[in-house]
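pls ignore typos typing on phone
zinc ion + seq
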Amino acid sequence: MDASLLQQVPHRRFNPLTRDWVLVSPHRTKRPWLGKVEKPATTDLPAYDPTCYLCPGNERADGARNPKYNSTFAFDNDFAALLPGTPAFEGDEGGLLVARSEQGICRVMCFSPRHDLTIPRMSLAEIGEVISLWTAEFRRLGELDWVRHVQIFENRGALMGASNPHPHCQIWANASMPDMPVKELRSFRDYREAKKSCLLCDYLRLELQRGERVICENDGFAVVIPFWAVWPFETLLMSKRHFASMEQFAAGESGLLADILRRITIRYDNLFETSFPYSMGFHQRPTDGQAYPEWHFHAHFLPPLLRSATVQKFMVGYEMLGNPQRDITPESAAKRLREVAEIHYLDRV
Ligand SMILES: [Zn+2]
Ligand SMILES: [Zn+2]
Ligand SMILES: [Zn+2]
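k done
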């Protein structure tokens, strides 16, 4: 493949995980640079907010009161999108009007008692606490006999629709597999059958050899801007060892995950010197009790920002009706993310 053509000529790139395509238009970045890098007004959050329903000791919407927790804290969402014990029903009218009941559990998990403490500003030990609760929740929910999939995800920032700035994530456990993991499972399986190898093990090896899309790595994990990234600064976090979910961590891997999460989120914040908004989530093996030797542990970071803290990429028009499209190539986005420091801009002396 001619690397220089990929920086000049409009082309499509294939996502082997989902089998979707993205249109890349590198020539458009030769347009005059319209967006100047603006810094938004810094929003200083207090360490404790008496009106926040996630802070320790405060009352929640349904009247329950949070304990005075001093590390992490998880509870069932008071406004859950899914409910356990939903009565089963199924309807199908000629394959055109098709519906099925869906059972689930929606959890909310606070990363820290501190209202203002995001992952990039937490210590490794504090992120370690978050990872051990993620692991415990994944195991406990996954062991329920009707739960087939557990999705851990974080919406960070008002741009992503996060309703409360208190650092937290959500965990949804479903009776059905959601669409994206279903697509990925099919790709992992087909690849393993065809090549007797793992799609992401092979992909990671290729990226580490080339280096041009690698952002950071340690002994356990690496973060790259995938070749097929849709969002300008989208990244893919992959384990270096082949395993399928958090409760299969080997010794030291939880600490290495804390390290890589801290480093990539510091880089994100430093890019535009802002608290960088994103949706992120882990993709782990299905939890229906079967073995999934083909599944490779990974996480996606999907940030909406384009070229400054205030300029957002919109998925509209052709992207809603045809394919996603991007101007800045994954390679030049990777270069920019590699150029920023791993010391948080607010912690610089
Ligand atoms: Zn709070
Ligand atoms: Zn693998
Ligand atoms: Zn995935």
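Helices lie at 124-142, 179-195, 199-210, 253-271, 318-321, 330-339. The mean pLDDT is 94. more later
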